[in-house]
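Moderator note: this is an archived Q&A kept for reference. The question asked for a predicted structure of one protein chain; the sequence and the answer are reproduced below.
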Amino acid sequence: MRAASREGGFLVLVGNSSVGKTRLLYESARSELAGFVVLAPDLGDGALVNVIADATFPLPKLIVWLDELQRFLPGPYFVTDDQDSHTAITAATVRKLLTADTPVVIVGTLWPQYATELRTVQPDPASVGQSRYPAAIDILTT
């Protein structure tokens, strides 16, 4: 978190329910990222994050808070909302934010079973080694 305060970064804590992932991120951010602006979109509102990444104005020092990260990633846990036009975040968005002129720190939490499911490969022998959710993998390995 300290290095991310200077250079930006993408930090994902993987752990079971109620073990303190969010609290750890909060306390770490409070300590190391004082003075950063926090963007905490509604679950599944990746469109807001995508728009911020495409901004033509200089970004402030920014924390993008994606608690329950699986709800923002393209895959089986993405939150859809037809009324609010929810969109998943994209790997291009993450890359743009991480290369912004000011430090942008993207933080997220993820349960182990979601991380495992998002990384699974197709059971079809014809698609050996192909991820079921390649767009999610692209984001998680950014």
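Archived answer notes: The chain has one domain: 2-116+128-140.
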